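During the second year of the project, the team shifted from modelling isolated chains to modelling whole assemblies. The rationale, set out in the original proposal, was that interfaces cannot be judged from single-chain predictions alone. As a representative example for this report, we include one of the complexes processed in the last quarter. Its constituent sequences, exactly as entered into the pipeline, are reproduced here:
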Amino acid sequence: MDEASAIRRGELPLLSAGPVRERADAARNRVRALAAAERLFAARGVAAVSMDDVATSAGVGKGTLYRRFGDKSGLAAALLDERESRLQAAMLGGPPPLGPGAPPADRLAAFVAAYLEFVDAHLDLVAMSQTASPGARLRTGSHRLWRQHCRILLAEAGAADPDLRADALLAALTAEQVRHWRRDEGRSLAELTSAIVEITGRLAAR
Amino acid sequence: MDEASAIRRGELPLLSAGPVRERADAARNRVRALAAAERLFAARGVAAVSMDDVATSAGVGKGTLYRRFGDKSGLAAALLDERESRLQAAMLGGPPPLGPGAPPADRLAAFVAAYLEFVDAHLDLVAMSQTASPGARLRTGSHRLWRQHCRILLAEAGAADPDLRADALLAALTAEQVRHWRRDEGRSLAELTSAIVEITGRLAAR
DNA sequence: GACATAACCGGACTGGAGTCCATATTCTAG
DNA sequence: CTAGAATATGGACTCCAGTCCGGTTATGTC
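Output from the structure prediction step:
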């Protein structure tokens, strides 16, 4: 999952419309791979699908898969991309309290609730994107965006050490942790949301 | 990592001194395996050592290793066991504020600081024990103990939803997260400790 | 001390992750 | 339209985690 390939597959914004265009065969295979992965994940569950399975089912070589997505966590991240970007758009430019206009603490609470809902809606996929390789979670491009958002809002709210608190907050919202709360402990999403929002308020308080 | 083998290797308390005694050869091999693992981990780093390496170096079959420790995370946990139990003893029966006698919020702060120090001192080993298999962290016997401790102290301090807050607190103290703060962001242990203790206070407050 | 039984041993085996590179395809310039 | 450079392809390959089971060894009993 190097930066170059991340840019190539459109995960990182390119400042200037780069001279590097995706080749036609590459584009075709990317679509095929994502379609196959989505199909297999839906049919058998994320954990039970191997990269070989995806490659075979997509009619593509394994090397292609790895070059493009880096590993299984990259593949999962690519599948999440579209839905993620809806949340990202809402929080960067949508209506308050998620978007700009509301007080920072309120925006943070709204973000946490929305993010939790997102994670919950795609538990296994997010878990895969965060844990397929060691430290994957902290390296994801989207993670950086979530973190940056939290940092800024915490700072605006006047909280001490906003960077560390943003990390601590997101650490509690790991897919594995949420999955544990939801499946092993049988907690409802509403319950989790209100508890986490409460905690968030404490972290954001001056 | 089934319960029977966990008991056999002394990780879970046995109510009555069971009739099941560890066989002499089993005990010998357990010692050999742990010694070999410690040696190899120290020499090459945890990540670069395979279970095969440990088995060969210990003069033991791979099956033996897996039966006894379950997987690499179990092996790491077994190596951490002794040092962990020192912390556990201090927090259950040592002098305050870590041990009983101090106000719950103070005990919790002391625990968090001590636990953070423990994780920091064995970063890679703890990381391995938490992440070698998916969800390993939440299944560890010792994790349950840490969590229970936090739960009780949070409850005594009058915090709402102590169970969830205990999980959130420990999620922030994951070895991967601490490693990131320490190595990628170059934060000092003292800095982390004071920030985390501050957060802990906010979670424990009524 | 010999036997029955339960527990343990260890290495061959399976299957998947990730790498490598000779070949094929696409793009660009002339 | 063509040639050559740049890029992508894909399947064979390596390495390792984890399983399995026939053979071995310890332990309790007579």
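Chain A is about 70% helix and 0% strand. The radius of gyration of chain A is 18 Å.
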